[in-house]
Amino acid sequence: MLDALRHLVQDSLPGTPGAHSRVHQHDVRVAACALLLELANADGHFSALERSRIAGMLQRYFGVHAAGAELLLAEAASARRDAAGEFVFTRQLVQEYDVAQRTVLAEMLWEVAMADGTVDASEEAMIGELAAALELDPTLLARGTRSDTSK
Known about the structure:
mainly alpha, 0% strand
């Protein structure tokens, strides 16, 4: 089922999977990546492992090549600097993604949080806040009840 949801995310995106299309600042992929970066920085340390994990997820979930993932990371980092907060991104994601797609994004957030082997309290709190802002049921995303996407 998770694979089907992943394809929903990919299918909602403009362009051909694997294409090196230009990234527009209002591209929903940029909004999703910005949230992943926001979470990766929640504990005050953005590790190479977290960056690598995000780049891999961008390739896997959004169907871009390594160069496309780097482009998305750069655009998302710029968008984060310019944004008034992560709620700019969550509003866009609520408008453009259905509940299943937002749930996949929440699973991606957990995968980033677990990248270094520990989930910091600030990361866990941010996931709860983002889940609420993404209009997801927080009980479905509780640490003990989510599925493990790192397998």
